[in-house]
């Protein structure tokens, strides 16, 4: 359960999302433009922000940058099209997950809960890497990635995707298995989300780190 700020200028969507989140036990505040979102976020210090990309005033990208400037805030971004989602993942704007309209409020709540769960599990503790993939080291407890001694930032979703594949290696995981394990989401309609996040991980860590097994899914390369 958390305090959630819903930023969405379309009243029907904002109301439906807020109602579903409240029914799930979250405390919800709503606002309808970007500048207001930045202000409310500073006042409320929410546990998570549901943020529409296209807003009057400041757009969602700029809101995401500003609210992340002071403290880390988990963000689930709402986009109107899949290609916008791909663009955002590529820009690494600091959102933890993305969902493309139209979506069911139930699906959104599942995504929100998965992000909140992961953030609450983020711990710390020094230890050696749990997985070593070539030059890439994965530290599960502290949720850090190092490449040749250099820290590389992955979003919580990207980290979980990589960690799931590393734990399963050398087995191949299907998109559906990854959706369940990483997103906690059982309906297969989010398969393109898996592909977007794989592309983001490859951009950050190199193309070789995750192997595409055509017609099946993904696996980690040579261990
Ligand atoms: Ca909008």
Low-confidence stretches: none
Q: Radius of gyration from the CA trace?
A: 17 Å
**Treating each run of at least 4 consecutive H or I residues as one helix, how many helices?**
8
Q: Reading side by side through the largest sheet, how are the strands ordered?
A: 2-1-3-4-5
- What share of the residues does DSSP label as strand, in percent? 15-25%
What would the CATH topology of the largest domain be? Rossmann fold
The CATH superfamily label of the largest domain reads Response regulator
Structure description:
The chain is of the alpha/beta class. The protein has 2 domains: 3-121, Rossmann fold; 131-220, Winged helix-like DNA-binding domain superfamily/Winged helix DNA-binding domain (Arc Repressor Mutant, subunit A, Orthogonal Bundle). It is built from 8 helices and 12 strands. The protein has helices spanning 11-23, 34-44, 60-70, 82-91, 105-121, 156-168, 175-183, 191-205, and strands at residues 3-7, 27-31, 48-52, 75-79, 97-100, 131-133, 136-139, 144-147, 150-152, 173-174, 210-213, 217-220. The strands form 3 sheets. It has a 5-stranded parallel beta sheet with strand order 2-1-3-4-5, with helices on both faces. The protein has a 4-stranded antiparallel beta sheet with strand order 6-7-8-9, covered by helices on one side. A 3-stranded antiparallel beta sheet has the order 10-12-11. Strand 11 and strand 12 (217-220) form a beta hairpin. The model has no long low-confidence stretch (mean pLDDT 87). The structure holds calcium ion (CA).
């Amino acid at each position: 359960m958390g305090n959630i700020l819903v930023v969405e200028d379309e009243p029907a969507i904002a109301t439906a999302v807020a109602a579903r989140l409240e029914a799930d036990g979250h405390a919800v505040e709503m606002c309808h433009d970007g500048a207001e979102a930045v202000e409310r976020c500073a006042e409320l210090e929410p546990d998570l922000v549901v943020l529409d990309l296209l807003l009057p005033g400041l757009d969602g990208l700029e809101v995401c940058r500003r609210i992340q400037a002071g403290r880390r805030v988990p963000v689930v971004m709402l986009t109107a099209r899949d290609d916008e989602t791909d663009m955002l993942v590529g820009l690494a704007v600091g959102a933890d997950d993305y969902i493309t309209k139209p979506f069911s409020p139930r699906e959104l709540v599942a995504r929100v809960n998965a992000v909140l769960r992961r953030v609450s599990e983020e711990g710390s503790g020094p230890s050696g890497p749990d997985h070593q993939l070539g030059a890439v080291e994965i530290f599960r407890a502290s949720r850090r990635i190092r490449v040749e001694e250099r820290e590389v930032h992955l979003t919580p979703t990207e980290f979980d995707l990589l960690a799931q594949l590393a734990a399963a290696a050398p087995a191949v995981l299907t998109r559906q298995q990854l959706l369940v394990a990483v997103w906690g989401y059982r309906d297969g309609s989010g398969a393109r989300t898996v592909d977007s996040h794989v592309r983001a991980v490859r951009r950050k860590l190199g193309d070789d780190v995750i192997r595409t097994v055509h017609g099946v899914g993904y696996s980690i390369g040579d261990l």
